[in-house]
Specification:
The protein is of the alpha/beta class and 215 residues long. It has a single domain, classed as TIM Barrel. The chain is built from 10 helices and 9 strands. The strands form 2 sheets. The protein has a 6-stranded parallel beta sheet, sandwiched between helices. A 3-stranded parallel beta sheet has the order 6-7-8. Helix 3 links the parallel strand 2 and strand 3. The model has no long low-confidence stretch (mean pLDDT 95). Bound molecules: 3-phosphoglyceric acid. The site of 3-phosphoglyceric acid has 13 residues, from strand 9.
Length: 215
């Protein structure tokens, strides 16, 4: 396992956050860290994404930061320049993946079909995001892919909650689960940082530590 897949696996949970005001970035990251989660995916769904990445990286250099919802090489470069450790896209785009390789960076593409998983493997990837997991087949889909793509690990994201996360984490081809429930946009905009910390520690306490995958 490399450092990023190791922390994804060990944490089991990847909070996906949309930050509208970059002044909220540091308190959000701090709440996650205090709740036991030292990894965050900051989505490029607001103009504050790059600035938020920069603030989190300079305040918490050991926190692993993913840039989410990255759809263009320009966004990828902006994210990496500001301190992102890896990028996540909602879809599979071979140009984006090749661009990440050129920049010596990890890109985790979103997939929904066997064809896309195969394409990701051909591009040299072993980790993909299954998005939106809960609406596109959930755990049954991931189980079915297991025997066909034994070398691929999945990060199911989309519609996952505290109540459903362990159904995913008990599958041996699931690296971790992603989701916005820990630090939703509403919680962030309301500055409900204590709730974010509680959601993080609740998820960490509930996660199924029995999932054993090798990357
Ligand atoms: C993402 O970008 O990964 C998703 O929007 C997160 O999905 P969720 O909001 O349903 O958790």
């Amino acid at each position: 396992m490399n450092k990023i897949s190791e922390i994804l696996y060990n944490t089991s949970i990847l909070p996906v956050v949309t930050i509208d005001d970059e002044l909220n970035a540091v308190p959000v990251a701090e709440s996650l860290i205090e709740g036991g989660i030292n990894i965050i995916e900051i989505a490029f769904r607001s103009d504050a994404a790059a600035g938020s990445i920069k603030r989190v990286k300079s305040n918490f250099p050991n926190m692993i930061i993913g840039a989410g919802t990255v759809k263009t090489p320009g966004q990828m470069e902006l994210a990496l320049k500001n301190g992102a450790d890896f990028v996540v896209s909602p879809h599979l785009d071979s140009n984006l993946i090749k661009h990440a390789k050129k920049l010596n960076s990890l890109c985790i593409p979103g997939i929904q079909t066997a064809t896309e998983i195969e394409m990701a493997e051909e591009l040299g990837l072993k980790i993909v995001k299954f998005f939106p997991a809960a609406y596109a087949g959930g755990t049954n889909m991931i189980k079915a892919w297991g025997s066909v793509f034994p070398n691929v690990k999945f990060i199911p994201t989309g519609g996952i909650t505290l109540d459903t996360m362990n159904k995913y984490l008990q599958l041996d081809n699931v690296l971790c689960v992603g989701g916005s429930w820990i630090a939703s946009e509403a919680l962030i905009n309301n500055k409900s940082f204590i709730d974010i910390k509680e959601n993080a520690s609740e998820a960490i306490n509930k996660k199924n530590n029995l999932h054993t995958v090798n990357v």
